[in-house]
TrEMBL record:
All residue ranges annotated as the Aminotransferase class V domain in the record: 2-361
Source organism (scientific name): Musicola paradisiaca (strain Ech703)
GO molecular function, one term: metal ion binding
Protein name per its UniProtKB record: Cysteine desulfurase
Record has S-adenosyl-L-methionine as a keyword: no
Keyword Ribonucleoprotein: no
Family recorded in the similarity comment: Belongs to the class-V pyridoxal-phosphate-dependent aminotransferase family. NifS/IscS subfamily.
Length: 380
């Protein structure tokens, strides 16, 4: 099997696996149990790991709290901000039409309780319209939540400009950076967000662990998603998953040490894939902006071919996807590509390929040969 679905999840790096296993044995105590030596050791190790994850996004360590991943972080932020401001009057939140389903669904949920949501359009390249953002701002706008990089197309959103607009109007800014962090360098000093959501399994860490960068902790403490013992400075109750945190920190450390080589290698392979695909299937369409995009992601449509049919033919040989992993089983056209204005044929034929630093050129060549051969047979 050739695995090219790394935006869904990545294989855990061997160093990460070793770190997780070591933590289970060496730091087994509850990191909140600081009344004894083993608990103190576990807590010290937790803080060492927190410092590494903070370094990953150029953040102050006190602004990092651990959770189960970006879906939890997104829900935490959206619900907490809505609840915090509800007592002060109406609440308006701005997001985009191409967000991950976890964010769109929590916004839909809150709209049932009187929270007003604006969904910004995107252009044909998959980028948020800044003019529409400016026009959508109201006196009661409390939060702008725009993802950093799209999980289906890999398109990078203009975070510098979005952040500037938010700060200009004294509006909180949240970004779901699950697909960006660990694939490209990310700096909270540069982008100045109030909240950032991160998942470890998107960059070769363990599943079920993530982090929230939070510059406004009082809002989360006011309305935490999970009530309990007040772990993580009151932001996320529940015993901390220290082996998961250790694995996330190791994955972060590996990225920090090798990101330049990783990015360059993936950009080269991405361009190689696009060039070969268009050489053999000239009318293939690359969906989304090719310049401002993740180095590992290609979303393309093959005219006259349904992606579901092609993927069924290849599923035992090449791992690709036709939509986000969170709703690919539904076999529905992509809401992201639909928002970009793709016609029905392009929607039905859309496929996502996502590389990793572990992808080898020989494997990519083999996948290309199988993909092209299968597509040509299906087209007759």
């Amino acid at each position: 099997m050739i695995y090219l679905d790394n935006n869904a999840t990545t294989v855990m790096a061997p160093e990460v696996r070793e770190t997780v296993i070591h933590c289970f044995d060496e730091y087994f105590a509850n990191s909140s149990s600081i009344s004894h030596y083993e608990g103190i050791r576990a807590n010290d190790y937790l803080e060492e790991c927190r410092a590494v994850v903070a370094q990953l996004i150029d953040a102050d360590v006190q602004h990092i709290s651990f959770n189960s991943g970006a879906s939890e972080a997104n829900n935490t932020v959206i619900k907490a901000v809505a609840d915090y401001y509800s007592s002060q009057g109406s609440v308006h939140i701005i997001t985009s039409a191409i967000e991950h389903k976890c964010l769109l669904n929590v916004c839909q949920y809150l709209s049932r309780y009187g929270i007003d949501i604006t969904y910004l359009p995107v252009d044909y390249l998959g980028k948020v319209c800044l003019t529409s953002l400016q026009a959508a701002i109201r006196p009661d706008t409390r939060l702008i939540s725009i993802m950093a990089a799209n999980n289906e197309t890999g398109v990078l959103q203009p975070l510098d400009e979005i952040s500037a607009i938010a700060h200009q109007h004294n509006i909180l800014f949240h970004t779901d950076a699950a697909q960006w962090v660990g694939k490209l360098p990310f700096s909270v000093t540069r982008f100045r967000p109030d909240f950032v959501s991160i998942s470890a399994h998107k960059f070769h860490g363990p599943k079920g662990i993530g982090a929230l960068y939070c510059a406004c902790p009082e809002m989360i403490r006011h309305s935490p998603l999970i009530h309990g013992g007040g772990q993580e400075s009151g932001l996320r109750s529940g015993t901390v998953n220290l082996p998961g945190v250790a694995g996330m920190a190791k994955a972060a450390e590996l990225f920090i040490a090798s990101h330049q080589q990783r990015v360059a290698s993936q950009q080269k392979m991405k361009q190689y894939f696009i060039d070969r695909l268009l050489t053999h299937i000239p009318d293939a369409r690359i969906n989304g902006c090719r310049q401002q995009s993740l180095p590992n992601t290609v979303n393309f449509s093959l005219p006259g071919i349904k992606a579901s049919t092609l993927l069924k033919k290849l599923k035992m040989k090449v791992a690709l996807s036709s939509a986000s992993a969170c709703h690919s089983a539904e076999q529905k056209p992509s809401h992201v590509l639909g928002a970009m204005g793709l016609d029905d044929a392009a929607l039905q034929g859309a496929i996502r390929l996502s590389l990793s630093y572990t992808t080898e050129i020989a494997a990519l060549d083999s996948a290309l040969e199988q993909l092209i051969s299968c597509a040509q047979r299906l087209r007759g």
